[in-house]
Design goal:
single chain; Metal Transport, Frataxin, Chain A; globular; endonuclease activity; endonuclease
Amino acid sequence: MNLKLPIISGEKAIKTFEKIGYKVVRIKGSHKRLRDEIDRNHKPLTIPNHKVLKPGLLKKLIRDSNLTI
């Protein structure tokens, strides 16, 4: 069953990933790069600080962080 992802901003996504152990390590323009401080084997996440993240990008961020919905 496909779940519909919520519409969230880049800032909300960043705050959510920070709650689970990611830390902002670099900012370039409107994009922030986060790295998992608990498990360094996870891919770094690059999140644009936009008002709305597209569902495909949000799905990719969830997949790259090894989270499940």
